[in-house]
UniProtKB/TrEMBL annotation:
It comes from Streptomyces griseomycini. Residues 36-61 are annotated as: Disordered. It comes from the Bacteria. The lineage of its organism: Bacteria, Bacillati, Actinomycetota, Actinomycetes, Kitasatosporales. This is L,D-transpeptidase.
Length: 182
């Protein structure tokens, strides 16, 4: 009797493993081609969702969920996104000479008005990252100017207009998620 029970358990286990293997194979061959782009080491590559060419200011795909600030390094653009996933405001920015790595950050500190790392008085400073000692954050020049970037100087101020800076200040409180995309 015990031998028969063992044979049944072994048979059921083999059938279950065969079924799992078959279903795994079926799932892998049914992945859309646009999602099957392995990286150089053979691991699946993370790909940005395609952009809506008819709406260049559309929120990038795979930029998180919930209330957040999305900053695109490649587009020099910011989106302020509400809890419902709707864009509350989007605007272009002037980048700093030091970029944070793509990823998810949190607003760590804010300053109403200071002097920026380039010596320009700025307001509505919202800091969220640091790269090798250079603090990265959004700010607006009090005189409304865009930064004069010198690639030999490490600056972390991502500049906005004063109106956009005021909107960021109101939206990006301490702890707010900031998602940086390529």
């Amino acid at each position: 009797m015990a031998g028969t029970s063992s044979a049944i358990v072994v048979g059921l286990t083999a059938a279950a493993l065969a079924t799992i293997g078959f279903l795994g194979h079926e799932a892998s061959v049914n992945v859309p081609a646009e999602l099957r782009h392995p990286s150089a080491d053979g691991a699946p590559a993370v790909r940005e969702a395609p952009r809506d060419e008819g709406r260049p200011a559309a929120l990038p795909g795979r930029s998180g969920r919930g209330v957040r600030v999305v900053y695109s390094l490649g587009e020099d653009r910011v989106w302020l996104v509400g809890a419902d996933g709707e864009v509350r405001r989007t605007f272009g920015v002037s980048p700093s000479t030091v970029d944070p790595a793509p990823g998810t950050y949190r607003v760590t500190s804010r300053s109403k008005r200071i002097t920026g790392s380039d010596g320009v008085p700025v307001e509505h400073v919202v800091r969220f990252a640091s790269v090798e000692g250079t603090v990265i954050g959004f700010s607006a020049a009090v005189d409304g100017s865009a930064p004069a970037l010198d690639p030999r100087e490490r600056t972390g101020g991502v500049r906005e207009t004063r109106a956009d800076g005021a909107a960021m200040w109101k939206f990006a409180t301490i702890g707010r998620t900031v998602v940086v995309v390529p």
